[in-house]
Amino acid sequence: MQHILVATDDQAATKAIVRSFSSQAETSVVRHPDDLKPALAKRPYDVIFADMAWIDRSPERSFDTIRTALRSLWAMAPNLEIIVLTAQENIREAVKSVRAGADNYLTYPVTAEEASYVLESLRESRMMQTELEYLRSAEHSSALIPLQQVKSPVMQAVFDKVRRVAQANTTVLLTGETGTGKGVLAKLIHAQSNRASGPFMGVHCGAIPETLVESELFGHEKGAFTGASKRKPGRFEVAAKGTIFLDEIGTISQPTQVRLLQVLQDKVFQRVGGVVDIPMEARIVAASNVDLEELVRKGEFRADLLFRLNVFPIRVPSLRDRREDIPLLAEMFLQRLRQQYMKKIEGLHPDVLDAFQSYPWPGNIRELENLMERAYILETSHMLSPDNFPPDLFVGGAPLANVSLDLSLPLSEVRNQAKEHAQRRYIEELIAECRGKVNLTAERAGITTRQLRKLLCRYGIDKSRYKPVKNGIKSADI
Known about the structure:
Elements: E1 2-7, H1 11-20, E2 25-30, H2 36-42, E3 47-51, H3 52-55, H4 63-76, E4 81-86, H5 91-99, E5 104-107, H6 112-120, H7 122-137, H8 153-166, E6 172-175, H9 182-191, E7 200-204, H10 213-218, E8 219-220, E9 232-233, H11 235-238, E10 243-247, H12 254-266, E11 268-269, E12 278-279, E13 283-288, H13 292-297, H14 303-309, E14 312-315, H15 326-340, E15 347-348, H16 350-358, H17 364-378, E16 383-384, H18 411-433, H19 438-445, H20 449-459, E17 469-470, E18 473-474
Parallel strand pairs: 1-2, 1-3, 3-4, 4-5, 6-13, 6-14, 7-10, 10-13, 15-16
Antiparallel strand pairs: 8-9, 11-12, 17-18
InterPro entries: AAA+_ATPase, AAA_lid_NorR, CheY-like_superfamily, Homeodomain-like_sf, P-loop_NTPase, Sig_transdc_resp-reg_receiver, Sigma_54_int, Sigma_54_int_dom_ATP-bd_1
Organism: Desulfovibrio subterraneus
Protein name: Fis family transcriptional regulator
């Protein structure tokens, strides 16, 4: 049986709605705006018929204020279907409410037949609306974040560098942890350059077998090696007049480093097995999630190649260093998921957003995207709820202000609990920033590695979660 809440002071509308569902639903009524949210908090409802002025009590009643008001209702009842009631002269506000996520609207005077029909057609209408939104916006599914919307100063500085370097043909080196969005920035540099009409060729250097790297990058002639049955142009050749993105550049071998250095110096290359010089006309953007200078010190990467690549370096910050942008990123992923999946989810539960702000994000933006997609697939309500996210997101990661206080305990015990919570968060965030390196984390914390290991064991923190991945294998402890 459905549980329906009617929230209006229009007695005729109330009677019509109650009468239309008398035999198939349990209907409750509130007659004053102040009673609306207490009624939702008291018990779960499936559907609400609510006066527009009761939902959004702000004087301007704009799209943003209506959407905020609707989300506050879904925060209390995530599965709630909302039918807006309004006067005929205020129908514009009713249309705004549907655009903001309400399921439908009715105008006064309300009849029993209208109230019954609107619920019967609700599911079909929602499906049609979702399909229409998908068709209209599918081509924009990979759209980049508008630069002016980014709030974190560190990311604003990154985008400022991107704007400045995009129009030049300068080689760019993007560095940062795995999942920070280096590939997105590479595409943005290409899109804002005078090469935007040319090809963008992405190459994941670590995913190409060593025996095929040179052939993939520079191409090969027919008969150059066993299996080379015809001439094949390489990525550099295909990317002429455009941009080639060399991702995970630190994984290429010494022989390939020598060949790449030669290409950067001479601006020409030959296909494997060929003798004809081909002009190198592609703009190079390289990326690495490992410290290339450290690789140079170890003798694993050529210093002269690093000098050639590091003409215009851009350090991409980790997600935990730009937490101001998490709501923006979450909303962007939510829009993409609406287009990809045939259901409509309007937002995230406040507890989820709070958890996002305190979680250390070892996988950065890619981890955020993956968690949201999983939750979106599982979700059955209007909002992404905590139930569909991993418990690890909330355990030990909730803001200190949200830690429940047991007033039956003495002050000393409450103080100890707060200390334990703060200590755990400190260790989690510090080892994430140190990328799982126990020695470095202990040094920065001012404790011994033995003490740190005891704390990791005590709080159940797995240091391997924060280690960078190289060729699919977690790097060893340093």
